[in-house]
Structure formats: C-alpha cells, structure tokens
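FORM 7B: Structural annotation worksheet

SECTION A. Query
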Amino acid sequence: MHKRVVTGVLAAAVAGAVLAPATAALAEPASSLSVQADRHGRPEVGRPSAEPGTVTAPERGTVKVSIRARVEVRTERAEVVLDGPDFRQVRMTKLERTAGPNGLYGGTIEVPSDARPGEWRYTVEATDDRGRTGSANGTLTVRSDERAPEIARVGADRRTAVLTGDGAKVGVEAVVRDHPDSVRLSFDGESVRMKHVGGDRYRADAWLAPDTDPGKARLEVRAYGSGGSDRASTWVQVRRQAGFTGFNASPEPVRHGKKITVKGTLKGLTASGSRRGLPGTKVTILFKPQGSSSYRAVKVTRTAGGGAFKVKLTAKRSGTWKAVFDGNGVHAGATSAGDRVAVRG
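SECTION B. Predicted structure
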C-alpha cells in the first residue's frame, strides 16, 4: 500500500545552519523533482510539475496553475524563468529558505476564459552567472468549460449560386464561440469539415452538383463540443446558367432609315448538364448610340421554339446592339456580346 507524502520538504542551510521546513504544499515526490549534477557545470533542472495538472478554462477571469521545478547550479547566482507559447514569460522564485541558488523554484501560469483547449507545453530554464543554461519541459492540460458551442453567425459569399456544367461553389463562413471540437457544413446531402481560420471564424466551400434543383438551397452549419452542439443555417438562390448564341445585328454597314435584323438564340443548362433552347422567354434588345456610355431598351420580344428570336428595327444611328435575359426561377440572367452596326448616309 502506497502512502502520499504530505510532510514538508526540509532544505539544509549551508555552513551548518539549522534546517528550516518548507511549506507542506510545496512538497513533491522526489521522482519528479530530483536533479543530477551536470558534469559540464551547466545548471540542472529537474522535471517540472504543474498543480493542478489539468484545468478547465473559467467562464470569466483566470485560473492559476502553480509550476515547480528543482534547480541546481555551481555558481553563486541563477535566474530561473517559465516560458511557453500560450502565455507570457514568468520569472520563477525560490521557494525554500536555504542559502545559495540551489533548491525548489515556483512560478504561476494564469489560464484565461478564452484559453486554447488542449495540451500546453512549457519550459523551465535556469541561467547561471556565467551565462550557462539548463532546461526541462512539462505539459499542462487545458479543457474548455464544457459549455455547448454557440454559432453566432453564418453567411455565404453570394446570394445566388449559378450552376454550370461543373456545378457551383459557395463559400460559407461561420462565427462559432466557446471552442467547438468540430464544425461541419452540410448541404445537398453532403457534409464537410469547416476549417478554423482564426479567432472564432470557420470556413468551408459548398460544391453544389449540376443537377441541384433550382430554388432556395439550405446551407447548415453544425458545431459540436463536449458540452453539447449548436446549428444554424443560411440560404442561397440556385439558378442554372443561361446564355446567348449566334447573336448578330445585320447588315453592316446599313443606310440610314433602312431595316436591320437583330437575332440570336437563348439557351439554358438542364439538370443533365446539356444546353437547350428556352422557348417563350422574354428578351430585351438594347442599343447604345456611338459616343454614348449607356444602353437603352428599344424592343422587347419573346423567343420561339428552340429559344430563337429575331426582330427588325430601323437603323437611325451608328452604335452597338445587345440582347438581355433578366432570368427567372430556373435560369440566371444573361447578356449577349455587343454587335456594332455603322449607319451611312
């Protein structure tokens, strides 16, 4: 049967001084704090210990953790510091009332409410008055306060996702508080892990398949932690791609007052990934006079079978013609390339 040692550590005073008991709370098993002399004369640091070795980040304020390590040097003075990537450097002080620099040293780490959960590594380093150093490493486990993570906001990088033959990519960002263990983005029957990009922000891309149904698509974020989970959603409008082919205004050039023909075909993507004409669809013909910076609508027409359209207009000024489709519940809007026609006489 093993018994825990709770008596104080006795530190021997130099030059025959009487023994002074250290505080009982500073006692440590010899196996964790023992030091062996360095034959090269460098300071020696025993394996450090943390009390407590595992802490839970508080809801507010800080939690203090005591770090102790035994140090032995061969000079008259030494400086001992506690350092690590998760906290500022701390100068350690000698805890035993003995002469000289050798003995048990202690320092305090403060764990804040927003502490990074996981294993914290720290180093105790001793430097003697000749500049020689020795060190030893230890670890401290920090846990979250086991609250359920909270999703504060979810947003997409666009309001409308236009499906092409490859589908559509939508970037999603979520703000998730209270240190979740995992954050996932779900869409269209798929689920991907969101990447932590700093602070409380997480990001992932949702790839919508080409056969995704037009309409509102739900993008759901779920956050999981030891204390529970949370979910929140955002929405994007899904439309299939549309475009004009064979757009042309002719003849060119044309005499003033003569007729020109503006024609083309409007096509849209299908669920299978092919493109077909869009019959019975409204198309607006635009004209920008030479020297002007803006277009104006001059004619509204509808496509015939196969998505074709053709209108005859009177040529009055030189300029550029375009066709525009405003979009509908299935297909996204589209604009043709411009075709310039010079008017003579």
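SECTION C. Observations
The chain has three domains: 10-143, 150-240, 242-344. The longest helix spans residues 30-33.

SECTION D. Sign-off
Analyst initials: ____
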